[in-house]
Amino acid sequence: MDRTALRHALPHYLRGLLMGAFDVVPGVSGGTVALMVGIYERLIHAIRTAVEVPTALVKADLSGARQALGRVDWTLLVPLGLGIVTALLTGARFIPPLLEAYPEQSRSLFAGLILASLAVPLGLIGRWTPLRGLALAGALVLAFVLTGLPPAEVTDPGYLIVLLAAMVAISAMILPGVSGSFLLLALGMYTPTLTALDQRNLPYIAVFVLGCALGLALMARLLEHLLQHRHDVTMAVLLGLMMGALRALWPWQEDDRSLLLPPDAAGVLQALLLALVGFAVVTTFIRATRRRTTEPVDA
What is residue 275's predicted lDDT score, i.e. its pLDDT? Predict the structure, then answer.
């Protein structure tokens, strides 16, 4: 690993920590962080390239697998992946109790984070057209509906269910605005998955990781194609998903996801202040990131 790669390893690890921490929170997506810090398209390209390795192995093409290994952007994926895994393992123990103890405050803070993050995809859209406006509106409605689904509960899921749930969750995880953990909640798989992580249930974790790998392979190929050939429309869709997913972060809601009016003026003031804190943190982070040289995507 050269000096440049080493210099970027710690920042990528920290970005992975942020992505993993966001992914543990229902209603927030780690893909939002990747977009926010300017590595989203590079990440999608790196994942799609990495998928070529097992594909070549399945075809017994050892030469092709070695060539694919050489093209993978390991300087991004390794530290980023380590950061995500670290955050998932630690966040599975600490974040859910915090959300349960302070639900309104937590949602208010995260709503401010996401609101500030909307500036990133908005700035990547060249110009607005009717098609891009319709794409944004459709994605907004879809995310709004999905985040309104009531949570389910599965007590003893079979491995096939775990596999399919992981494919769905990981696909959502790399889409800004769509929360993989929220979909796990809607599918009833959130608590079993966090329990398996916390208790180091290796068979469950292995099946879940396999599902994540399959979901990543499919979604990364689709996203890279769309970003290469329909960039601005895709960004409009991602922006719409982020906007619609804000429904999940409305501070006051019932257990079945139905929205409530604010209880009093003091509650509204507290929510606004926390949202402003989140907004200020992300705005500062984005400005600091933009002062750095943008890292190129390897061809």
Answer: 94
pLDDT of residue 82: 93
Domain coordinates in residue numbering, the chain: 3-291
Task: Supply 273's token pair.
Answer: 């202040």
From first CA to last CA, the distance across the chain in angstroms is 19
Coil, helix or strand at residue 253: strand
Decide if 242 contacts 177 (C-beta within 8 A).
yes
Region of 23 on the Ramachandran plot (φ > 0 left; ψ -120 to 50 alpha; else beta): alpha
Torsions phi, psi for 259 (to 5 deg): -85, 145
Helix axes 74-101, 190-198, angle to 10 degrees: 110
d(CA 89, CA 224): 29
Give the pLDDT confidence of 138-163 residue by residue, as tens digits. Answer: 999 988 888 887 877 777 888 899 99
Q: For the whole prediction, is pTM greater than 0.90?
A: no
Distance CA 24, CA 96 (A): 8
Q: Which two tokens stand for residue 145?
A: 């509906």
**Residues 6 or more apart whose Cβ sits within 8 Å of residue 121:** 35, 176, 235, 236, 238, 239, 242
Beta strands in 14-71 (DSSP E): none
pLDDT tier at 196, thresholds 50, 70, 90: confident
Task: Give counts: helices (H), strands (E), the chain.
Answer: 14, 0
Q: Which residue has the higher pLDDT, 185 or 231?
A: 231
The CB density around residue 86, as the number of other CB atoms within 10 Å, is 15
The 3-class secondary structure across 166-234, one letter per residue, is HHHHHHHHCCCCCCHHHHHHHHCCHHHHHHHHHCCCHHHHHHHHHHHHHHHHHHHHHHHHHHHHCHHHH
Task: Report which of 216, 133, 147, 145 is spatially closest to residue 175, judged by C-alpha positions.
Answer: 216
Secondary element (H or E) of residue 243: helix 231-245
Coil/strand/helix, residue 157: coil
